[in-house]
Write a structure and sequence with these properties.
Chain lengths: 593, 295
């Protein structure tokens, strides 16, 4: 892309000289040429005075034209024009980091394409990678080399609840004033806008499933992790959900459309339920988990880990109560009967109590077997500690963001993204979010098993906080609202970890110390180090500050454009002088003859 | 001056207008010393007409039929009667083909018209018109053709053809603006050589005898473009110019008089599209100057 730019735009002030020249020429006496006979009869008259007497009509003479051209060229020379030929500009890779990009392995596809683009970059071409999360973030730059960029791309996995694509483009626009090739990899419907000095290429990825949950389902049904015995239908909405959602499950061979605002089509729903029940009849174990509070309330089933543990399920805007044929089908299928091999041998009993009139249904897990494979788990804070003091849990209370201070009478039980569970000691229950923002628990469709783990740990009366699925270097989401001087120190085998507020990278059991006082323990297993998307992200800075230095010197040959301008100006002046001279010479000869 | 015709159209128009206008005119036969073949005009010399001219003593070889026998009877001296000759006059027409003659359209028209007019008036007089241009002498029907092809592109007056010996002594018309700074007397003598009489006709365009422009002008000589002057043309400058022109015209007139040539000055009126006004003006002026007369 060729691009002519002025390195010294202030030089354009010199254009005012053009006006001065024209002004001078206005005062210059202009003679109207007239061919006559008998010049000798006029010759002896007094010559008129030249210039300065009165304003003359501007006559675009050769002299004026050459003077203007010379002046223009001089001004241009002072502006230092730089012709940036073959400037490829900045290549910007914008990866939609929203959760929905997990569908159909779209993120992997996007990364593959992005890598191709990066690989094809020239030696001196610049590129950056922006993760379009809720807030865009520059995560890699060609300043660290192409290979590092490619490696860094491997580290990213989509986890955001939203993707600020347009903000990402704006961010890249802030990074450079020059030309940009922007590649946007997204599954969002974005109306491409034309941006000055920017070419934007959209790489759209449309998944059959609009959200992670169904992607997981699909993967489990058809993919390598298929387990004929266990299918988890996680009806979740991790990213911005469109109003109409088409859910396709190949094995079900049916499509059901949920409209979160409108009445659910009873026929469709019935059909969907029927398909599910057909699956159940095939002796495929099904857990249906809806993390979303908005998607399809009446298909949401929250499983209680213990018969004696009542987990109340709040159904907002319930349009169908749970006494639907669907649940009846589930019950009738006996899908949740105990099986020795299945971890989720769940059994649902329905308590058609008076509570159902208040749209509160208790679903009880009647039997649970330990699943050794599952070693992950979220925080468990089973009693009040110093840590809980002033600890504000950024939570979502059924879709509403709300901060809940941890009080003595509250025991946050588990946090699973936007449908957390929390148990009050006083017997009342509230659902809230512990906001383990980057916890990979949301990747786990088997969170009922987690519940069982929690229960197990709880039974063992493990003190303090337990967490098993931290990423290395993951930061704890503690917010010290009142006492900011509080520090948490990790201690491992009497050795204090220097980190403050972040989880040690090495697996192990740690003691949490605040103000030289032990207040809890933490166990870090670091199960998914390869999937960590924090390792690289932690090195990056925020948007506003992330401006790679692209102001390298222009190649010298481009700056030389000033010299041709100067030469041109000189040529104009010499030509003007020479023409004047030759005309004067002719005239002198004429007078002499 | 409205310029409605192209150069060729102007020349053709002048040519046709000259033929048309000259139908009732002929050259006044009182020009002196013209020599030509026998014709209807009485020449200056002796000839064979019936008009008595003079007596002289008989010389051997004289025609005895011319001897005045009655005088011999009275005086006993042989004398012979001389009769005036009858001639057909040669009329040479020469147009100044310098560039100054073509600066203004009225002058182009007037010069070609005058030439055409005189050619045909000569024919009306049963004389022999000869049109001389820069390269040739044209007679008969060639004259019109040559006039239609006239070009005004000389830097000065070319008179070399005048110096070649012609038959007889012609009556010579020289049509010019005489706007050149030369010694007019010697110029007149030069162009009158080998002619019985020279009639200089001075044509001045309206723009020349009454210029009407004003303001700052770069005046360029039409014949030498490297000569110019830059002037602020004011009414007083115009007046001064007119005075100079008057002096110049007087000097041309004096020069003509010095060789006993009748001088005709034609200050052309406004030029109309058909040139009719100019044609009538010239015919009238030539008549008044006794160059031509109505038949």
């Amino acid at each position: 892309m060729s691009n002519l730019s002025l390195q010294n735009p202030l030089g354009a002030i010199g254009l005012s000289v053009l006006g001065v020249i024209v002004f001078i020429y206005l005062f210059h006496r202009q003679y109207k040429t007239l061919q006559i006979t008998g010049l000798f009869l006029w010759n002896s008259f007094t010559r008129t005075k030249e210039g300065g007497k009165r304003l003359e009509r501007l006559n675009f003479s050769r002299s004026l034209l050459l003077d203007l051209l010379a002046c223009l060229a001089l001004v241009l020379a002072f502006c230092v024009p730089a012709f940036q030929a073959a400037d490829k500009g900045l290549t910007v890779i914008i990866l939609d980091n929203s959760f929905s990009m997990r569908a159909d392995k779209n993120f992997q596809k996007a990364k593959r394409e992005a890598k191709e683009i990066i690989s094809n970059l020239g030696e001196n071409e610049k590129a950056i990678v922006i993760l379009a999360k809720e807030q865009p973030e520059v995560v890699a730059s060609s300043e660290y080399g192409k290979n590092k960029m490619l490696l860094a791309l491997d580290e990213y996995t989509p986890y955001s609840k939203g993707a600020a694509i347009k903000d990402s483009i704006s961010l890249s626009r802030n990074i450079t004033d020059g030309y940009m090739h922007v590649h946007v990899f997204t599954d969002k419907d974005i109306k491409p806008n034309s941006i000055k000095n920017t070419s934007v290429t959209y790489h759209f990825y449309k998944a059959d499933f609009d959200n992670l949950a169904f992607t997981n389902v699909f993967r489990q049904i058809s993919g390598e992790r298929r387990n004929s015995e266990n299918i988890f239908l996680t009806v979740a909405n991790y990213s911005n959900f469109r109003k109409n959602v088409n859910i396709k499950i190949s094995d079900i061979k049916n499509t059901i459309s949920f409209n979160r605002n409108a009445e659910i089509d009873a026929e469709k729903k019935k059909s969907f339920e029927f398909q599910i029940s057909e699956l159940l009849k095939k002796d495929i174990k099904v857990s249906i988990i809806n993390h979303s509070d908005k998607l399809d309330e009446d298909s949401t089933i929250i499983l209680s880990p213990e018969p004696e543990l009542k987990v109340l399920y709040y159904i907002d805007n319930l349009q169908h109560n749970l006494s639907s044929p669907f649940r009846a089908a589930l019950n009738a299928s006996g899908a949740f009967e105990t099986s020795n091999k299945s971890f989720a041998d769940l059994y649902i009993t329905q308590n058609e109590s008076a509570q159902s009139q208040n749209n509160i249904t208790t679903i009880r897990l009647v039997k649970q077997k330990e699943v050794p494979a599952v070693t992950v788990g979220p925080f468990i804070i089973n009693y009040y500690t110093d840590l809980c003091d002033d600890l504000s849990l950024s939570g979502v209370y059924w879709g509403f963001n709300k901060n809940f201070p941890v009080r003595k009478n509250i025991v946050p039980l588990i946090s699973v993204d936007e449908t957390p569970l929390c148990w009050f000691e006083d017997g009342s229950t509230i659902v809230m979010n512990l906001a383990i923002d980057k916890s990979n628990i949301k990747l786990m469709p088997c969170w009922p098993a987690l519940i069982s783990n929690i229960v197990r740990y709880s039974r063992n009366s493990l003190a303090g906080i337990h967490k098993a699925n931290y990423y290395p270097s993951e930061k704890l989401q503690y917010v010290y609202s009142a006492l900011k001087d509080k520090r948490i120190t990790f201690k491992n085998k009497n050795k204090l970890m220097p980190s403050t507020g972040s989880v040690p990278a090495k697996p192990g059991n740690y003691t949490l110390i605040s103000k030289n006082k032990k207040f809890g323990k933490i166990s870090v297993n670091a199960i998914f180090p390869n999937e960590s998307n924090l390792l690289k992200l932690s090195d990056t800075t925020k948007i506003e500050n992330q401006k790679p230095d692209l102001s390298e010197e222009l190649p010298k040959s481009f700056k030389l454009l000033s010299i041709p301008c100067l030469l041109f100006a000189l040529a104009c002046l010499i030509l003007n002088w020479w023409l004047d001279f030759s005309v004067a010479q002719k005239r002198l000869k004429g007078d002499a003859s | 001056m409205p310029k409605t015709l192209s150069y060729t159209q102007t020349v053709d128009s002048a040519l046709q207008e000259g033929i048309k206008e000259s139908g009732n005119y002929r050259i006044v036969p009182s020009m002196s010393n013209q020599r030509g073949p026998a014709g209807i005009y009485l020449g200056k010399g002796t000839g064979s007409s019936i008009d008595f001219h003079d007596f002289r003593e008989y010389q051997p070889g004289d025609d005895l039929r011319r001897v005045d026998w009655s005088a011999y009877a009275r005086n006993n001296v042989l004398s012979v009667k001389l009769y005036q000759e009858e001639i057909s006059p040669f009329v040479e027409i020469l147009i100044d083909q310098s560039r100054s003659m073509a600066v203004y359209e009225d002058k182009i028209f007037a010069s070609v018209f005058t030439a055409s007019f005189l050619v045909n008036a000569t024919r009306q007089s049963e004389g022999r018109p000869i049109y001389i241009d820069k390269s040739n002498r044209h007679t008969g029907k060639n004259i019109e053709f040559a006039l239609s092809k006239i070009e005004f592109n000389e830097a000065n007056v070319d008179t070399h053809l005048l110096h070649s010996k012609s038959v007889g002594k012609p009556l010579r018309f020289f049509i010019s603006d005489f706007l050149f700074a030369e010694d007019m007397e010697s110029f007149m003598r030069n162009i009158s050589r080998n002619s019985a009489a020279l009639i200089p006709i001075m044509l001045l365009s309206k723009n020349e005898h009454s210029p009407e422009f004003s303001g700052a002008h770069k005046l360029i000589d039409c014949e030498m473009s490297n000569r110019w002057t830059e002037l602020d043309i004011t009414p007083s400058a115009i007046n001064e110019y007119k005075a100079r022109l008057k002096n110049h015209t007087a000097s041309v007139r004096r020069a003509a008089q010095s060789i006993a040539a009748p001088f005709v000055q034609l200050n052309l009126p406004d030029y109309s599209a058909d040139g009719n006004d100019i044609a009538q003006y010239i015919a009238k002026a030539l008549t008044n100057s006794k160059i031509v007369e109505a038949v």
